[in-house]
């Protein structure tokens, strides 16, 4: 620790000597960061949930999405009679416009089917004006999907699933324009919906939500700094310093190609809450040094020498707590961890170099200000009074409260630790009983128009969830394989209550062959030649891969992800029981299957993530301090908080989500910082000659106000998340606010009796060991003297 303080002392001298160059370099880095921020992209696809190198992703993306995957922008028309010729003509105008949009591979519409049927009957490719003719064509040629009832009609604009988000957004915009230009009758309601529309609107909501959250977070910071940090000058200065750190983080995010996701957008209010703590610690210490009469230059050096190592150690331990996030198999959680890691480093550097430099500059300017000099003369005379004559300032309410709390907890240490430990053990057990929210649609704003439209479409059409079966074979014309597909599909639809239908190449073969599957491969190959490529390619890829879709309706809302997982397991068991012909291999995949695995990975791994975080924090402290007491005390304090948090979640009915599953790591990262800062000041006071109780009381008063201010700003920073329209984010914000409050409570109630008790025990053992060594030394000397006496 001595070596580290020497390094920071030299760094303090450097910063004091180079204030102007530091500010110029900062200005240059801000420009570079703004340039990097332009490269940040929004991401909400499968690759934000699944590791690209995993087998799960390979099956879904490479075998299904790239070969067969499509997405549809759905145009849903509602009205009294959707077979009205005027309405069908408007649909045809929309069809002719959308089919020419770049990137659209197919448009399906009842109007085009009716036109084609009419052409075969009359030779005219147009919508008939006779309602009876239209009804006859509909009954014989139009699939029920496109006209589910007399009041609803469906058009689908099909794009490849691998189409980029920007292209999908452009196609969606062009589709809406086409609908407007089609001039639908005024008494019909036209809705443009579907998964692409939902994803585009959700990305827009995420982008807008992030800006709102940042603004709310900043406003809350202004309030809390103004109220709590009033014992220093320029009390709002930590806020622009931490914003500077956030700007640097945005730049790094762009240059490192870290995308903005539903989870990572929450990192910035979190970083404001965490990063402002570093600025407050430096600010508080330099003001304390100046108040005690230290020269301006020495105040800068002392601040960096004493506060720099403590904050750096806190940062390292916070980073170790966050490091456990990288054990998650979900990319967006890993990106969340990356942002937190980068962000705390950037905020630390901004506070160390820019924060101290600006404070030093402000102080110099205020000293030169003529008006300030008049008001500072009396103050400077007080500062230069000798330590012998200097009277203690009157403690305020917060100082008295902190001193009283720490004194009470140390006086009743056994009772306090026993109660806290019991609540921790009970909370750890209750945490295993906390329910897990797996319905992904509940994570987004429930009043999002795109979600409302998507839900409404599901109510009309019965849902479009699927289990996708990819079949690898040496020969996709093998009649035995086709017979198996037919029998297996019928078995699943008839025997499984939540499988409502199936579609595959079998449907096209039977339609071409009078409802029968040919008996030879040559006949099958001949039929393949007759089927249009656009239809055939939906189910075949080359000669070796086939696709079977099992329709499971609204399974996401009816069964939930866990139910879909169970249904997938049942289908897999059926495949083993009704095994395909030799040489054929069946893989179950699909969007629903992916999310089952993802949610399981997010939630079930939270205990291991927390345990790893505890081990890393303890190991990091042990390496830094080489002292078991200093390594163990902060960890014990934070384990208490982890247990309390689990108990509160259970008894308040809160649920785990993909984000709150990371809270164990977050608590360790955030809370251990407060304990470490308190511990550093405790040993600093002990080095001045105070006994353990006095040192703890002094530490509670001197650094306690800064910790309370830091905690309050962190709480307010996280509070901004509660205002998010995304329930997954607001739920995370609420639970985190509770946890930060618990971490503060543990720092002032649990930490003092734990460290004083363990420190006293350590001193007693050390004293006992010294006495034992002294006794052994005396015994050794006496034993060496006896022979001489005898000889004499």
Specify the helix fraction band.
55-70%
Mean pLDDT: 82
Named CATH architecture of the domain at 1-38 and 229-385: Up-down Bundle
Biggest beta sheet summary? 5 strands, antiparallel
Q: By helix and strand content, what is the structural category? A: alpha+beta
Strand content: 5-15%
Number of helices: 30
* Shape call: elongated
CATH class (first level) name of the domain at 1-38 and 229-385: Mainly Alpha
Q: Any idea of the CATH topology of the domain at 1-38 and 229-385?
A: Multidrug efflux transporter AcrB transmembrane fold
Transmembrane segments: 20-40, 209-229, 236-256, 262-280, 310-333, 339-362, 413-430, 608-625, 632-653, 659-677, 706-726, 732-756
GO cellular component, one term: plasma membrane
Keywords: Cell membrane, Membrane, Transmembrane, Transmembrane helix
Protein name: RND family transporter
Give an overview in words:
- It is built from 30 helices and nine strands.
- The chain has 792 residues and is an alpha+beta fold.
- Among the domains are: 1-38 and 229-385, Up-down Bundle (Multidrug efflux transporter AcrB transmembrane fold), CATH 1.20.1640.10; 69-200, Alpha-Beta Plaits; 464-598, no CATH class.
- Strand 7 (540-541) and strand 8 (545-553) form a beta hairpin.
- Helix 8 runs parallel beside helix 10 (267-291) and helix 22 crosses helix 23.
- The longest helix is centred in the C-terminal third of the chain and has 41 residues, at 751-791.
């Amino acid at each position: 620790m001595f070596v580290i303080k020497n390094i920071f002392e030299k760094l303090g001298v450097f910063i004091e000597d180079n204030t102007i160059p530091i500010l110029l370099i900062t200005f240059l880095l801000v420009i570079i960061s703004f340039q990097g921020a332009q490269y940040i992209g929004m991401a909400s696809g499968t690759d934000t949930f699944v590791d690209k190198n995993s087998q799960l992703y390979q099956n879904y993306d490479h075998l299904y999405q790239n070969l067969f995957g499509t997405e549809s922008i759905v145009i849903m028309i509602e009205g009294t009679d959707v077979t009205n010729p005027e309405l069908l003509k408007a649909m045809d105008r929309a069809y002719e416009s959308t089919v020419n949009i770049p990137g659209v591979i197919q448009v399906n519409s009842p109007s085009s089917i009716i036109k084609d049927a009419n052409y075969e009957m009359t030779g005219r490719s147009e919508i008939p004006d006779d309602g009876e003719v239209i009804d006859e064509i509909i009954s014989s040629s139009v699939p029920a999907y496109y006209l589910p009832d007399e009041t609803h009609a469906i058009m689908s604009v099909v794009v490849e699933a691998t189409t980029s988000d920007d292209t999908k957004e452009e196609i969606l915009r062009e589709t809406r324009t086409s609908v407007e230009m089609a001039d639908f009758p005024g008494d019909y309601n036209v809705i443009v919906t579907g998964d692409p529309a939902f994803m585009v609107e959700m990305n827009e909501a995420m982008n807008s939500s992030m800006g709102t959250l940042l603004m709310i977070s900043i406003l809350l910071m202004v309030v809390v700094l103004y109220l709590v940090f009033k014992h220093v000058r320029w009390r709002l200065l930590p806020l622009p310093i931490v914003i500077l750190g956030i700007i640097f983080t945005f730049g790094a995010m762009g240059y490192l190609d870290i995308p903005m996701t539903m989870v990572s957008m929450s990192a910035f209010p979190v970083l404001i809450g965490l990063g402002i703590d570093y600025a407050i610690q430096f600010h508080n210490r330099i003001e304390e040094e100046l108040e005690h009469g230290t020269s301006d230059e020495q105040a800068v050096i002392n601040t960096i020498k004493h506060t720099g190592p403590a904050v750096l150690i806190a940062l390292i331990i916070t980073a170790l707590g966050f490091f456990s996030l990288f054990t998650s198999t979900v990319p967006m959680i890993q990106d969340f961890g990356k942002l937190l890691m980068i962000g705390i480093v950037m905020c630390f550097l901004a506070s160390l170099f820019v924060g101290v430099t600006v404070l030093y500059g402000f102080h110099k300017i205020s000293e030169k200000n003529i008006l300030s000099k008049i008001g500072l003369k009396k103050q400077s005379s007080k500062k230069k009074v000798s330590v012998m004559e200097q009277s203690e300032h009157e403690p305020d309410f917060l100082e008295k409260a902190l001193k009283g709390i720490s004194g009470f907890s140390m006086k009743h240490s056994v009772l306090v630790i026993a109660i806290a430990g019991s609540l921790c053990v009970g909370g750890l057990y209750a945490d295993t009983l906390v329910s897990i929210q797996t319905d992904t649609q509940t994570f987004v704003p429930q009043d999002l128009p795109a979600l409302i439209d998507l839900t409404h479409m599901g109510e009309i059409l019965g849902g479009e969830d699927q289990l996708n079966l990819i079949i690898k074979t040496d020969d996709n014309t093998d009649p035995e394989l086709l017979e198996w597909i037919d029998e297996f599909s019928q078995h699943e639809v008839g025997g499984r209550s939540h499988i409502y239908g199936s579609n595959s190449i079998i449907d096209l073969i039977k339609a071409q062959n009078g409802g029968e599957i040919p008996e030879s491969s040559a006949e099958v190959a001949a039929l393949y030649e007759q089927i249009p490529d656009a239809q055939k390619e939906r189910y075949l890829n080359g000669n070796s891969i086939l696709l079977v879709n099992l329709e499971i309706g609204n399974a996401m809302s009816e069964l939930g992800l866990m139910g879909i997982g169970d249904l997938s397991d049942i289908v897999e068991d059926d495949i083993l029981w009704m095994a395909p012909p030799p040489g054929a291999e069946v893989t179950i995949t699909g969007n629903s299957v992916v999310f089952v695995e993802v949610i399981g990975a997010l939630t079930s791994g939270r205990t291991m993530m927390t345990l790893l975080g505890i081990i890393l924090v303890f190991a990091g402290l042990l390496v830094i301090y080489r002292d078991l007491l200093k390594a163990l005390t902060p960890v014990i304090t934070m384990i208490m908080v982890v247990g309390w948090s689990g108990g509160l979640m259970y008894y308040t009915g809160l649920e785990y989500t993909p984000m709150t599953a990371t809270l164990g790591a977050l608590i360790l990262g955030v809370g251990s910082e407060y304990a470490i800062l308190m511990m550093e000041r405790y040993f600093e006071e002990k080095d001045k000659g105070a006994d353990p109780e006095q040192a703890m009381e002094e530490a509670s008063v001197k650094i306690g106000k800064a910790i309370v201010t830091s905690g309050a700003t962190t709480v307010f920073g996280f509070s901004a998340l509660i205002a998010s329209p995304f329930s997954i984010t607001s739920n995370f914000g609420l639970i985190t606010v509770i946890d930060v409050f618990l971490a503060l409570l543990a720092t002032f109630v649990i930490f003092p009796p734990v460290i004083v008790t363990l420190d006293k025990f350590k001193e007693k053992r050390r004293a006992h060991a010294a006495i034992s060594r002294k006794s052994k030394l005396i015994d050794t000397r006496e034993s060496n003297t006896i022979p001489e006496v005898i000889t004499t």
